[in-house]
């Protein structure tokens, strides 16, 4: 049984008197910096001088370079995209760390794939929120928590766990919970969810919307019915609270029967070998090597994939619907 930590399992004491450096002011960086500051922590932000640092200034920080912030921090949060982290670590972070510092990641990726070597005299830990950066902030402001996966890779002073849980508490996660894992498991589970589950949902939505549009249904009605009303989000939220089976009973018998009686048709599509291959690529490091090569090449295939998807009838219809209903 995995260790689960809640609000009462941590104190903020390990963070008292410490400077926390947030490197990167993107999705996670901005939200975590704001949450930490609102929890009473001393936060410095490191980012290149661009739109992200302009946002940080607007939010009341005085951003410095990544290297300068890393030097100022006792606790250094690396909140940079995984695929660029090894190079930034080598060039701007490593030389500014001193003995006793704690380096924190929001994902196990670079450690799991052995992309970074650490000095032996620092703590290396992970606090990986299981939700989007924007939601990390939204939930904090609403007094809610969110799941984080936490781990300690290197504990130099015997305090790494206390610091990890203090950070999880200060960003607001422990109002819900944190679960102990390894950097490897966090990475593989996260990548599998992103690559096996989300594409399956995306294709299901895309196919369903395109079929309904071709059949002549009004695009706003179809889009809202499928997912743009947020009902699908509610179904998954309830599944998170009661389990998928438990939430089934919240639907009408007609809905419940319709869903259960058609499950086999989708099971027959053969998703299992596709998902097994995806898991094998994640576990072997094949995906990580592919993604590193893509980053080195300047993201040509990634950019093409994004552009191609944006040109689909589904994506165009979605934009039109959103414009009409949300302005
Ligand atoms: P973002 O893509 O939002 O990060 C953008 C930030 O990274 C900006 O500050 C940007 O600054 C900086 N950055 C990007 N490229 C470079 C570069 N080459 N050199 C220096 N700085 C750079 O990342 P996320 O917040 O999405 O992800 C950060 C970490 O959080 C990752 O480890 C991710 O796995 C993890 N995570 C993310 C979640 C999410 O929902 N987004 C959820 C849970 C974990 P600039 O462009 O100005 O250089």
Feature tags:
Rossmann fold; alpha/beta; 11% strand; binds NADPH dihydro-nicotinamide-adenine-dinucleotide phosphate; 327 residues; 2 domains; 15 helices; 8-stranded mixed β-sheet; single chain
Describe the structure.
By secondary structure, the protein is an alpha/beta fold. The chain has two domains: 4-181, Rossmann fold (3-Layer(aba) Sandwich), CATH 3.40.50; 186-326, no CATH class. It contains 15 helices and eight strands. The structure holds NADPH dihydro-nicotinamide-adenine-dinucleotide phosphate (NDP). Residues 24-29, 47-48, 50, 52, 79-82, 84, 88, 106-107, 128-129, 132-133 line the site of NADPH dihydro-nicotinamide-adenine-dinucleotide phosphate (NDP).
Order of the strands making up the biggest sheet: 1-8-7-6-5-4-2-3
| Secondary structure tally, helices | 15
- The run of helices and strands is EEHEHHEHEHEHEHEHHHHHHHH
Spans of 5+ residues with little confidence (pLDDT < 50)?
A: none
List each distinct ligand once: NADPH dihydro-nicotinamide-adenine-dinucleotide phosphate
CATH architecture of the largest domain: 3-Layer(aba) Sandwich
Return the average pLDDT rounded to an integer. Answer: 96
Structural class given helices, strands, pairing? Answer: alpha/beta
Question: What share of residues are in beta strands?
Answer: 5-15%
What is the overall shape? globular
What is the assigned CATH homologous superfamily of the largest domain? NAD(P)-binding Rossmann-like Domain
CATH class of the largest domain: Alpha Beta
Measured between the Cα atoms of the first and last residue, the distance is 47 Å
Write down the domain tally: 2
Biggest sheet details? 8 strands, mixed
CATH fold-level topology of the largest domain: Rossmann fold
Radius of gyration: 22 Å
The share of residues in helices is: 55-70%
Tally of strands: 8
């Amino acid at each position: 049984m995995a260790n689960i930590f809640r609000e009462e399992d941590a104190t903020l004491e390990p963070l008292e008197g410490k400077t926390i450096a947030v490197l990167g002011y993107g999705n996670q960086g901005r939200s975590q910096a704001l949450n930490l500051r609102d929890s009473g922590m001393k936060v410095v932000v490191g980012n290149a001088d661009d739109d992200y640092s302009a946002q940080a200034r607007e939010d009341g920080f005085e951003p410095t370079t990544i290297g300068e912030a890393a030097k100022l921090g006792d606790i250094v949060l690396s909140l940079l995209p995984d695929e660029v982290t090894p190079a930034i670590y080598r060039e701007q972070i490593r030389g500014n760390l001193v003995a006793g510092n704690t380096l924190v990641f929001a994902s196990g990726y670079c450690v799991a794939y052995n992309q970074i070597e650490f000095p032996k005299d620092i703590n290396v830990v992970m606090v990986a929120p299981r939700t989007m950066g924007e939601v990390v902030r939204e939930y904090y402001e609403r007094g809610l928590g969110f799941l984080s996966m936490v781990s300690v890779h290197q504990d130099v002073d015997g305090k790494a766990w206390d610091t990890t849980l203090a950070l999880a508490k200060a960003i607001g996660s422990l109002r819900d919970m944190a679960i102990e894992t390894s950097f490897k498991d966090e990475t593989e589970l996260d990548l599998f969810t992103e690559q096996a589950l989300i594409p399956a949902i995306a294709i299901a939505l895309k196919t369903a919307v395109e079929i309904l549009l071709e059949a002549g249904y009004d695009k706003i009605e179809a889009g809202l019915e499928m997912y743009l009303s947020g009902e699908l989000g509610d179904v998954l939220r309830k599944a998170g609270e009661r389990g998928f089976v438990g939430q089934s009973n919240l639907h009408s018998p007609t809905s419940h029967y319709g869903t259960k009686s058609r499950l086999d048709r989708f099971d027959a599509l053969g998703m299992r070998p596709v998902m097994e291959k995806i898991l094998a690529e994640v576990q072997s490091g094949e995906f990580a090597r592919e993604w590193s090569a893509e980053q080195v090449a300047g993201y040509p295939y990634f950019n093409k994939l994004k552009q191609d998807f944006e040109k689909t009838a589904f994506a165009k219809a979605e934009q039109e619907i959103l414009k009409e209903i949300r302005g």
